[in-house]
Amino acid sequence: MALHLITGYAGAEHVQAADQGSFNIAAFGNGQYVLDHGYKFAASLLSGNTVQIKDGDMLMQGRHIRLAAGTVEELTIDNGTQGMQRKDLICARYTKNNSTGVEVAALVVVKGTEAASNPSDPTINEGNITDGSDLINDFPLYRVTLNGLEPTLSEPLFEVHKKVEDALEALDDIDEVKAQQAKDFILCNKQALTFSSNICTIQDARITADSLADVYFTSACFTAAQKASVSVETSAGAVTLTAARTPEATLTATIKIRVI
What we know:
Shape: elongated
CATH architecture of the largest domain: Sandwich
Distance between the termini: 58 Å
């Protein structure tokens, strides 16, 4: 097959669902996600055995599936049996007609098998619809557990795929952290501190008045440092440690400077 220009005028209809699906896979991955839009298929258990699903958008192996904004669907859970337990799965189901090629999606309840205790999830369809080798696939959204006649709705079973703009903001945050780490430095590493009149001053031109100093005393002198009640301050070009009481032993510490 020749190279195909998808987003271009060809004089006739030429873009197929598989083209958009392939693009979605390239951009978002070949998984199953609920997108961060609308109510994100929020579910609630209504009176009786009815589950209400609110609007949302999802990607299923590249296929964009949508419940329009402001709309809901209601699904009925079959009654349980007194003294028995059961697990049902609420799924988004993709199916393709092998003869016509028509593809559809629907919300369905996959009913589990009753057991006296510890029931298992029902078997669902796990198909590969990316290359068309399978005609059906289920994307589990919620689990409904029935203990006797009482149904309980689970937390969402799906992952919410964040917006691209949120991902870019997260990358910006990482860049800021890396930039900060590049400015930070170790002033001394397990160094014996010299106190004169209960004051120890270490000079370094990289220290600013707004810098923060983290002092980590070694385990051997930690108790002595606590008893001495050592405080720390920074100024332009120096960090100063002040002991409220004369240290009973030599204090050894690592000091990390965070340059603000």
